[in-house]
């Protein structure tokens, strides 16, 4: 270590702080994290620690194929073994893109050292022709407009340039912003971590102060599991509902809880989110963007507004309780962060559906859906794979109307593999041209946190695991009864049993004979359990019995 230029006093028994950095030029949302790491180091040195930065696999949501989610658990394994295997006393996790935050937290949780997160921070608001536009959310809208002939491709490209104009993560309440918000609601970062823009000097000051905080957490022996209690997860679920958070967060929180041995189920999201209105008016469920959310007061203002719905004595990495954070918070723009009396929408969170089509569960985000479609009966138009969907969705001969229900198979955790964000299938061109903008869509896939629509996701068991989804055929009737949380295929049990006899589940499973993808397909859990690998659930701790020499 002396070869790195460290003086003798660096080894005087001070806490060694690992800075786990997912910096990568292939992950634009994390590309500024080397700069952020330097500010963390200043804080660590100043507080009497020794900072040592190390890399971890970076998962760029827009780059990785077949989907970044396939590698979340691989990142978690790498982070876990890097933390356990090296002689470090505490760790700072630097990440931001959708899967880097949960992957890092899952790995760190299985070691359970004192831990704090510093997120990338969101990009500045997108701008196009005088209007604010949001990452992802407006891409989906503009791409539909191009397909419907309402926007030219060159205007689309100009909008894209105005959308991604600074460092940082997607600035809608997509998965990255949702996960950064939930880190804060869990108490695993300093207050205001989620919303301060990536380029804001205050984010660098927050990184500096996080360096202070991790040294204190090590000295006070506050392990990650001390902060991530069941109460902390309840706070995260309620904040998730209040901000209109991404559906992906459900998978990540379930997997994280599994690492910590915290009892958490899919139904907790429906039950705990039920009393929480949508308070934050951000895309994709609302109008504003993360920069506006920052100036309005960020997560602390939301926590203050949620009042008694939050477990206020929960401890946080800052040393303050949620109660202290709420008492010091202020909302400065009630258009962006509404009051409980005047919410954006009285319905929020996620609805967890059950029925013969999803015996282990499926979810729908009501705040992103068309209310009239949440109680709907329609004929299935079935796509056996994403390739089948792409080949036929714009076929003028496709037998589909606005009452139909689009069903997509083979896109679950095992089936794709990695459960890609394709559940918000674009509508058939011929219906777009008629002005139809939403339909019920059902799949075992995920959906981008920036997306919207009446989209039923995470159907479990998935088609590749032999779920009922695999048995659906064109023309079958499906009933969604959202208020009663039911999703049923109106086909008799006898007929389903007959179809099952002829089912070749293998048709929905890719064949991988080696490498990570094989390990993943052989051991990944279903969506209702968070898609961790079955042998990674739980913790191994930080003790290593044997020395290297
Ligand atoms: Fe990385 Fe959206 S693509 S945060």
Considering the chains and any ligands shown, give keywords for the structure.
2 domains, 549 residues, alpha/beta
CATH class of the largest domain: Alpha Beta
CATH architecture group name of the largest domain: 3-Layer(aba) Sandwich
> Whole-number radius of gyration?
23 Å
Strand content: 5-15%
CATH-wise, what's the superfamily of the largest domain? Response regulator
Structural class: alpha/beta
> Would you count the extended β strands for me?
14
Ligand roster: FE2/S2 (inorganic) cluster
Treating each run of at least 4 consecutive H or I residues as one helix, how many helices? Answer: 18
Q: What's the helical proportion of residues?
A: 25-40%
Overall, the morphology is: globular
How far apart, in Å, are the first and last alpha carbons?
A: 17 Å
Low-confidence stretches: none
Largest sheet: 8 strands, mixed
What does this structure look like?
- Helix content is 33%, strand content 12%.
- It has 549 residues and is an alpha/beta fold.
- The strands form three sheets. Strands 7-8-12-11-10-9-13-14 form an eight-stranded mixed beta sheet. Strands 2-1-3-4 form a four-stranded parallel beta sheet, sandwiched between helices. It has a two-stranded antiparallel sheet with strand order 5-6.
- Strand 7 and strand 8 form a beta hairpin.
- The longest helix is centred in the middle third of the chain and has 19 residues, at 201-219.
- The radius of gyration is 23 Å and the shape is globular.
- The model has no long low-confidence stretch (mean pLDDT 96).
- The structure holds FE2/S2 (inorganic) cluster (FES).
- FE2/S2 (inorganic) cluster binds at residues 29, 61-62, 97-98, 135, 169-170, 174, 176.
